Amino acid sequence: MGASTAAAPDYPSGRAAWYAVIVLAICYTFSFVDRLILAFLVTPLKHDLHLSDTQIGLLQGLAFAAFYSILGIPFGLAADRTNRRNLIAAGVVAWSLMTSCGSMARSFGMLALARMGIGIGEATLAPAAFSMIADYFPRERLSSAMSVYAMGVQIGIGLALIMGGFIVQAVTHMPAMHVPVLGTLEPWRLTFLIVGAPGVFIVVLLATMREPQRRTAPNSHSAALPRAHMAQVVREIAARWRSTLGISVMMACQAMSNYAFGSWCPAFFERIHHWPNARTGLVLGLLAMIGGCAGLFSGGRLSDRRLRRGIADAPLRVGLISLLGVAATLVPAMLASSTSATVALLVPAVFFLALPIGCSYASIQMIYPNEVRGAVSAIVLLVLNLLGLTLGTLLPGLLDDRLFHSGLMLGKSIAITASIASLTGAIAVLLTAGAYRRDFATATPDLADPAESAVLERKTANS
Prior knowledge:
about 475 residues; Growth Hormone, Chain: A; two-stranded antiparallel sheet
């Protein structure tokens, strides 16, 4: 994975490729910090803006996900036609600015508008990043590369939890401050200003990265498509609709559990175990960064090794392991009466939550030609976010308000959410594996060694 790794013919050097992945992972990291900082502001938001748990869930999920998901499609098409690095840079400016605008919100509606703006900015990142990474790496190394990129999720969650815990605890005891132009701000509002500030640094960092050469990966369904339009994208998806739908549902279910955990666990520890924000942030943040990154790295390596052995549906198998592992660890963690038992179970739970993220992203890139990867990625993310992000953040709060009528039942609400997600995702994987193996076999492997490519084609055709 280091700079010494030899590049495949016509691919950028290992040094340039991994540098680009790290820069994109930093972008992903800070996008999650901006996205999840709200998890530590539940109590002051409910007090100052008079919000319910359901409204908090909508702010963390639907208010963000609606524009993030829908606008991902035009931004995905743009990623297939324009300079992807510059597209991401424009998005970073937008989401950082809108995060800071959250400091001025005086109502649920105003804060929802700020969250929508964050979603619009962040919608530029994933489709363009997926497409760029697929142009930096050959297919047999793509799961590992995507997993390193996806470590931004876990590092971002970890930083959001750690920073959120310490910042919120620090500013909670501060008096309201007068800020030029903005006026007098309550302490929690300062958090939005602090979290939005690193956007300037990220844009400068992006300027040091090159836009990679686009590569065509033709197959039986697509020759050369110089610039794909939506009709062409639809035809490509129609040729692989079973695989695309199954992967989308699997990823949505994994995200549903991940967002339920990331968005509601700080409030869970505050309400149920009476932890201060700083302790909650530190423990959960370290779990996310260490256990999550270990899971991502393991999932990517496991998928790549199985792929090299000719197991075409390796990413889906890793996804199935993850879903079963989450059911066996996260659910009992949320139901345990002991704090120590909860934390002990969360260690493997975070590992399983992260395990399939990178290889799931890679699985889509492996079966589609370059010319439509951005748009297809955006459509997959549309399903992932409208189902996973929205339900993962909304359902626990909705169950608290409508079923249990108590915020003290939050652990059970998270457990129910994770149980539904794990069962649905496992069924989707089992129904999709055969179709994915067929679609993988028809794609042209872009491996460095032609002999290895031929062996892999024969194995995947018979798997």
